[in-house]
Predict the 3D structure of the following.
Amino acid sequence: MPEKYDYLIIGSGPAGVQMAYFLQQSQSNYVVLEKTDKVASFFRSFPRRRELISYNKVNSIFDDPEIILRWDWNSLLTNDYSFPFRDFSQRLYPHADELVNYLESFTETHDLNICYNTNIIHVKQKKDGGFEICDDQGVIYRCRVLIIATGFSKPYIPDIAGIELTENYENVSLENQTFTGKRVLIIGKGNSAFEIADIAIETAAQVHIASPNSLTLAWQSRHPGHVRANHTRLLDTYQLKLLNGTLDCHVKKITKSTDGNFVVTVSYVHADGEVEDLVYDRIIRCTGFSFNTEIYTPECKPDCILNGRLPAITPYWESTNISDLFFAGTLMQGRDFKKSSSAFIDGFRYNIRSLYRYLKQRYENVPLGAKKLAASPSEMRKTILTRACRTSGLWTQFGYLCDVFIVKNNEQVSWYEELPVQALREGQFSSEEHYYSLTFEWGEWNGDVMAIERHPQADTAYTNVFLHPILRRYRYGEVISEHHILEDLFGVYSADGEKGSVLRRSGRSIKQYHREEHEIPLEIYLDKEFNSTIYKEFDSALVVV
């Protein structure tokens, strides 16, 4: 007889383990199916150089474990903050093996229900609902809800004539002696490309990195998936004329010459379409990975975006064309690709918690668990600023997850934590007359990100470029007003959140500063939205009556 579950997860990387933890805590009927004999199979091989780009900031001026998660990019979420990654590594850039050890220990400690050595060969959706999953031993599993947490499980190979002649990131040698005296072309401009380039530049005669798109650095874009500074020595050797370079070009064709070299035809993006044939000794493809759809039967195959690299998803991470099929982990980034942090553990762990709550509500009628507040501007102001000072989920998933405050009859507020912003934009709560979203967001800036002009006053907070909280008022699904909370270097927006790092600001005590620049402006905004008046002007200063 087939084994039956309410929830079935495929993949036991950090996403599968995180979802399993939440389901385990609620004693749900679930199982995780893992192809190999151990958890975290991807991180046992990648990244090739073994240094992660997910930060592990061990020391902080804060001691609240919720706030500390803002700079701990590897810990999985628990109900009591009981399993910090810093117990497994003290490095700012951890070693991949340390993450593997962490995930193994997490799995064992929480006794998660994982079936190893289970290689899935097909997934199909049953006509009467649910899914049937079959492994290569003929074992059949059935489930009501299927959650795919396999990550990018196959290489992405661009459509380039002759691409089969290249070496690839997955198994290229990391010994820099193998590059000695060679002319090397690396196709791709992501972190994997720069990871290999950083090895090659030690000994190679010439290193070029090529793709049609110009290089984007993480510290410029504020997206952690763009190229990180610890891999970018090549850029100095390019701009300081050491024969290396980054080429903005279309790689049109790769051929092998009679002398064993490679001839690469490129068309430059910023040079009036100039075409060149360049000669290299080695070509390495570092174009990343993509979503593998081979196990799905034709009628169950999920739609994809970005040339098949990611599944197409709804705001709650469900396949747009296959009902009851959900995605967890890096596959969740289809709606914030290269914008927020769903590609990384520090982002998708919060997505998964939100997805878990959604699944429990949708399939088991478990309420989302709104907290209740008195419907008063003062109570709302205190709650919002306390939350802004402390939340790690909204901080990390900036512009993507939000808290929602629904006001009923100006008497009670229902507060929901960490919901997808796009769910609000696509109609969730649109029958409500009075509600708010709280997000963290970056402002726009087109100049030098190292020379941003700041306007540190509450009345110009809307110009802020640094990550800061924004409160938006909705009415029947439409945004009718918004309030920007003045940015703060330490992410502190009230005197209660201060840790003694700032004594005075703009000639005022830090308590007075927060009162005048954060607390009073927010309460005035809320007072206006609630259609009551509790403030008046006195000698150009705002004081409570």
